[in-house]
Design a protein that fits this description.
Elements (H helix, E strand, L loop, with lengths): L4 H30 L5 H30 L8 H8 L2 H19 L5 H23 L1 H9 L3 H25 L4 H40 L34 H31 L4 H14 L1 H21 L18 H31 L4 H9 L1 H4 L4 H28 L2 H29 L1 H26 L15 H20 L5 H22 L1 H20 L1
Helix pairs in contact: 1-7, 1-11, 2-4, 2-5, 2-9, 2-10, 4-5, 5-8, 7-8, 9-16, 9-17, 10-15, 11-12, 11-15, 12-15, 12-18, 15-17, 16-17, 18-19
Length: 562
């Protein structure tokens, strides 16, 4: 039975969003409580200094292999793919040694009150990253064979265990917050790793048992629905091994991984540039770093709840159906190698891209319209009166409202671009990202010097604009000779824009005249404006909703026939 990639991608995004909402509600509540018990200095050490080490190690060691090995998984020769993905472990070991030395002996160590907890935290991050890398072959198999619910469940458990263990320990002993962070980090990683090995151990045992039973059954009796292409017969198959009389790794995927690795360095700088500046150059004290991280985490909730799951599902879908390096034109004299199925896949990919761009740009503009006049209210609910009335936090959150729509558009446009670029195009983009990284660091330093932490957010806005521009140029060139143009969907309809402008005006008036004496009344006004904007969007974009419904019905009918 052929795998339904679009349906699986939609399920992936849907389950991601549902589980993200559930555990983000819990983490939102626990973080709001924890923030009242620990200082901003501790928040800066944990969430800027230590988590920067984690994101650097995992992104540089894991992300290139994930993106490469998730390309066209139906044609994988799995022993070669497993050997390739295990290369990430020695890379992580080497980078852990180098970066661990930098974090412990070169960067400024926090004061005596936090020094011991900081050292333990660095070691906890390194060990947890190595443990996660060991699970990468199993993660890849879960993605490739569409175990969507299990993958989302494990990602959710990972974050939930870390958050709950940390919160309980901090509430009992706030003075040992850094130690609580380290223990929560290690325990959550061990649970995550054990879950993957236990799941695939059980699946393989079940498969082997059913295979033995099927050999004893009559030929006309139906057997198990286990995927015929599942190549793993034991957990040892997930370990690297020497292959006789054949290449040890997949050459094409190795080239892709190398391209993504070079790209990953620059993308990491562009993504975490402000944290590197705050850490290495020490532009901001730990207290300001803590405030920046609290506000950034709060502003990133929409991205984590909705945008990131959509981006991951979109990349997986586009990487399976889009032909790398090929223009999405109709069949012509120059494209005799395109089959009817490939033409249909290109058309469907354009429609899906159009739908995603409309969704993300509309949600981003909604945040831009309603976010700034409600920033103080959100901070009041999240961190209390002190955070809401501070001089820095409200301005930071308002600046993030400008950043969010750019982040939304960039996620989907880059997901398509990275799935469609050929290795030479990826290498060319690496040079562009190198230039953007240098410019971004310079601009970030200058804006931070003059405007403080808010300058970092403005620098990120410029960074996103540059990346969006490059992706738009790529997508436009790919569809330049086609009747399809998904980029038209970037601009919402007039009715929706009008509703946003009126809603923003009403919210600003409410903030100036109602927020100070009646916060519930200000919330009621903002909530009504939100509902009006969403209803207008649904009414205006009914054709895109019908497209989504029709696709769902088509795939449902196909599954019944099969």
């Amino acid at each position: 039975m052929a795998r339904n990639l679009l349906k699986s991608s939609i399920k992936n995004a849907t389950f991601n969003i549902i589980f993200q909402i559930l555990f983000r509600v819990i983490t939102f509540i626990t973080n709001a409580i924890v923030l009242r018990h620990i200082s901003h200095d501790v928040v800066g050490i944990m969430n800027v200094r230590l988590l920067l080490l984690e994101s650097t190690l995992l992104f540089l060691c894991r992300e290139p292999f994930r993106r490469a090995c998730l390309s066209d998984t139906s044609h994988h020769i799995w022993p070669r793919v497993i050997n390739l993905i295990w290369i990430s472990f020695p890379i992580c070991l080497l980078l852990s040694t180098l970066l661990g030395y930098v974090w412990l002996y070169i960067l400024d160590v926090p004061g005596e009150d936090y020094a011991n907890g900081y050292v333990i935290g660095v070691w906890a991050i390194i060990l947890s990253c190595l443990c996660e890398i060991v699970c990468e072959p199993l993660y890849l198999a879960a993605q490739a064979f569409l175990y969507v619910r299990f993958k989302v469940m494990m990602d959710t458990v990972h974050v939930m265990v870390r958050t709950l263990v940390f919160s309980v320990m901090v509430l009992k002993n706030p003075a040992n917050a850094l130690l609580a962070f380290s223990l929560a980090q290690m325990l959550s990683t061990l649970v995550y790793s054990f879950g993957y090995f236990a799941f695939f151990g059980w699946k393989i045992h079940k498969q082997n048992s059913e295979t033995k039973k099927s050999l004893k059954k009559p030929e006309d009796e139906p057997t198990s629905a286990w995927p015929e292409e599942f190549p793993f017969k034991t957990l040892l198959d997930f370990l690297p091994r020497k292959l006789e009389n054949q290449p040890q790794v997949d050459a094409h995927l190795t080239e892709l991984a190398w391209s993504f690795s070079k790209q990953g360095i620059w993308k990491q700088i562009l993504t975490e540039g402000e944290r590197y500046l705050a850490t290495v150059v020490s532009l901001l004290p730990f207290s300001h770093q803590g405030a920046l991280d609290v506000v950034s985490s709060l502003a990133a909730l929409p991205a984590r709840l909705i945008l990131r799951p959509l981006e991951d599902a979109a990349y997986f879908y586009f990487s399976q159906v889009v032909k790398r390096g090929a223009d999405a034109r109709r069949r012509s004299q120059l494209e005799r190698d395109w089959s009817v199925a490939e033409e249909e896949a290109a058309r469907e990919a354009a429609e899906v891209l159009s739908l995603l761009l409309t969704m993300t740009s509309s949600m981003g503009l909604l945040a831009l319209a309603l976010g700034p006049p409600n920033s103080a209210l959100v901070l009041y609910v999240y961190g209390g009166k002190g955070l809401a009335e501070s001089e820095l936090a409200p301005n930071l959150l308002r600046a993030h409202c400008l950043y969010l729509p750019l982040l939304a558009i960039n996620g989907v446009s880059e997901a398509y671009s990275f799935a469609a670029m050929s290795p030479p195009q990826l290498d060319e983009y690496n040079h562009v990202m190198a230039l953007m990284s240098a410019v971004f660091l310079g601009v970030s330093y200058g804006l931070t010097y003059f405007f403080g932490a808010v300058g970092l957010v403005f620098a990120n806005c410029g960074n996103m604009l540059a990346r969006i521009t490059h992706s738009i140029i790529f997508i436009q060139s790919r569809y330049s000779t086609s009747k399809l143009n998904p980029l038209y969907s970037l601009i919402p309809g007039r009715k929706y824009i009008t509703a946003l402008v009126l809603s923003a005006f009403l919210c600003y008036v409410s903030e100036n005249h109602l927020y100070g004496r009646n916060k519930i009344g200000h919330f009621a006004v903002s909530f009504c404006c939100l509902l009006i904007s969403l209803v207008t969007l649904l009414l205006e974009q009914h054709q895109l909703l019908m497209f989504a419904v029709n696709k769902w019905r088509e795939h449902k009918d196909k599954s019944k026939l099969q």
